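Hello again,

I reread your note about wanting to compare the complex against the isolated chains. To keep things tidy I'm splitting this into two emails, and this first one only covers the full assembly. Below are the input lines as submitted, including protein chains and any nucleic acid or small-molecule components. They are followed by the predicted structure of everything together. The single-chain runs will come separately.
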Amino acid sequence: MAIAKVLGIETEYGITGGPDGDPVIASSILVNAFARNGETRVNWDFGDESPANDARHMPLLTSVAPLVESHLANTVLTNGARFYVDHAHPEYSSPECRTPLSGLLYDRAGEDVLLHAVRVANDNALGTPPITVYKNNSDGKGNSYGTHENYLVERVIPFPEIVRAMAPHLLSRQVILGAGKVGYETEYFEDLAPRFQLAQRSEFFEELVGLETTLKRPIVNTRDEPHGDPERFRRLHVIIGDANMSEVATFVKLGSTAILLAILEDQGADIFPPMPRTPVRAVRAFGADLTLRQGQEAVDGTTRSAWDYQDELWTLANRYVAGGDGSAVASEAELKLLLVQWREMLDGVRDDPESVADRVDWVAKLRLVNGFKERHNLRDEDPRLRAIDIQYHDIRPSKSLARRAGLRSLLKPEAIGEAFHNPPLDTRAYFRGRCIAQYPNEIAAANWDSIIFDLGVDPLHRVPMMDPLKGTAELLGQLLDNAATAEELLRALGTL
Amino acid sequence: MTEQEHIQQPPSKKNDDTASIELVANAEKNEQLKNDLDNLLDEIDEVLEDNAEEFVRNYIQKGGE
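Full-complex prediction:
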């Protein structure tokens, strides 16, 4: 039975500049600059993090679990997000959102968080040379960093069914959601030497299923860290996506994946199209095929291109919504928008790419690359083409090529401004964000599923938040409005 | 003629001071795309990083997740 698809995106940003060009220092400067500028000073509580838990429940001796680097700068924002240094990147992890559109909004707000941090850092000469930030996934030299989506899924669904149902979508959705890449950067493509790929991330994937995130990356990641009641909930951690500059692409990325998960929960895995026989080869081959027609053999002997997979998956989703389902994901109006845009992007990339250059990032980018190449009569290897690829993702409005490419917007600027400061109303992010805003000096630490209050005397008080759908404005708004101090809050909650 | 569909989020019990997200689905193709590729390329000429070779060479990142 489909449960609410609470979701969110964590984005590792590319970063240049800062003292000695050290990305760890530069990233820390950004996080601290943001905190110092008054938004928040609350620290993250790492106590319950367990990224080494594997959904398959098998001890994997060859698998390396990611480290949680607890000594690096990190903070919790008044909009419920987490802003921190992950490895050598500034990372913004959006608050929990109830719908794809909300997920888009808080992802977009994250870009403004980074922009604000950069401006504060550079204005105060905290980063010298100036720090620049890019919302992309690789440096063209074989180093990749992720844009991860998270989706709430019923715990009762066996993990192999999630793999079976979702792998085809995850490896084929790049035909409309890929951010595009000039050239290639792994050994795998040395012979084929593709001039342009649909996605940034595809060539970095080496396994179908696995726990890793920094090497031997898997199409379906098994991290089992629900940040909630582990008996009811699973958090599906998707690591294969590209960072999108296109708002419509981000919306369709979240919406399509969420609706397919709801279908899995309601109807089971068997109605999904069959997996490719060689999924790793498929995800890379699909990414390098600009004709979108190359097929891969599926386990049932049939052949499908990435486009074919998306077409079948869209049909599944369309039927599901037409049958009256989908409330786990969004309102009827939002579902309609999702299905229309998904369909148009799909038909567009095959029949009339120009018509979707305002929504499909790889089409927009390729248009710039090809246009520029023709105008200046450049060779494929000309560095200006790779420069366009990188600068497409520059987050500064003054420099970003994506911001000039005529991408369609779904969001009102006022809404983005709101989401910069305030949390969603309809998930536990609301409680977190309001507490950060109202009691910043009375919070010892916070994380996804709890807040620890410090009332100035022992003991500390931990408020668990094990259900992403509790702690909403509806449930706690008034209580928060009436509690001037953390002590009053805790009394009203009945925990003091 | 521009067709605009305004899709309002269904009213839920939310505070008045929170902005709602209004969806504007513009059925007309963005004119800029068809007619202004040249203008767009002009802009890129202006804002593209000077010394692209150095810029690209210096853009190195540590692997992340």
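For quick reference: Residues 14 and 20 of chain B are 9 Å apart (CA to CA).

B.
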